[in-house]
Hints:
This protein has helices at 11-21, 30-43, 53-63, 81-87, 107-113, 133-142, 194-203, 238-248, 251-268, 300-309, 325-328, 338-346, 358-372; strands at 47-50, 71-74, 92-95, 118-124, 146-150, 158-159, 162-163, 170-174, 187-191, 208-209, 226-227, 275-276, 284-285, 291-295, 347-350. The chain is of the alpha/beta class. The protein folds into 2 domains: 11-248, Type I PLP-dependent aspartate aminotransferase-like (Major domain) (Aspartate Aminotransferase, domain 2, 3-Layer(aba) Sandwich); 251-372, Aspartate Aminotransferase, domain 1.
Amino acid sequence: MLPYGRQHVDATDVEAVVAALGSDWLTTGPRVARFEAELEAVAGAPCVTVTNGTVALHAAYAAARIGTDDEVITTPMTFVATASAAAMLGATVVFADVEEDTGNIDPVAVEAAVTSRTRAVTAVDYAGHPAEYDALRKVADRAEATLLADAAHAIGSTYRGRPVGSLADLTTFSFFPTKNMTTAEGGAVAATDPALVERLRTFRTVGLVRDRAKMRYPEEGGWHQEVHEFGLNYRLPDVLCALGSTQLARLDMFKQRRAHLTARYDELLADVPGLRLPPRRAWVDPLRHLYPVRIRDGRRREVYDRMRAAGIGVQVNYMPVYWHPAFEDLGYRRGMCPVAEDFYAEQLSLPLFVDLSEADQDRVIETLRTVLGG
């Protein structure tokens, strides 16, 4: 089965991991700080590494002090963790509909959803295409809310010349194997405010305070450390940060390869009937995580089944979050975001990854043409 996504690992990655395994540090050590500094250069803001992308969202909401009685406005067109991480902290999730073309959260819908309880607005850079952050910033600032970006798909993308990671108050990344780069499992949070960076570092280290100037009882011995606010052990280990550093060094190459494959899809699928290709706005330079097409005329299920029967691992990204039973049980109902539901009914992700050969891509294209009769 040709997968829809797959990691690219080469000899430099293996060598880096082996070197880390032979060092004195397997958990948090010098490679963590090095990887975080390298991430900052790409993201445009200081970064704090954590154990995965879901944890990154949890840590970001915790740093923003999201809790009971707060409302978080976000998109339904995302992986469930974007919303569930806020719900687990006691917040009420408010879903705003998406733009018809990009599948990203619609700033107009966000503004209509704002109430006196709104404490955060969380955008998602769907498929690697950044959301409309300038408009979202205006809405968030008027609401005195924190602007978050779930950029699990988008490290390496830019919006109006600015890197994803510098556009929101807090930006989360995922380094799962199918993403644009990998640490096997891992994630990070970028923050533009030094106070948020410090809060993130403390939260991901069980809340421990080791700076004597900040301790309540600094007269204790050299072993002493304190917890002022509860946190969790979300530290990404040195051995995985070693992999992250070598992956990040090739991010430009990954971007060029994905852009080349995206351009081939754009060209070779342009005339296929019943198919709508993903847009790219002029002011966005995306690092495409997904190539999401739209299958028209109610044929998405048929195309999905026939493509997979042919050995091509297409995928659907995503079912509207509030369709999950956990949200249904909280009272959310279908029909809340009709644009997102229409998007879901047609969406299909075609294989896209660095090692996808043109021959395999041609097989995807010809199979899709055959299925759609084009």
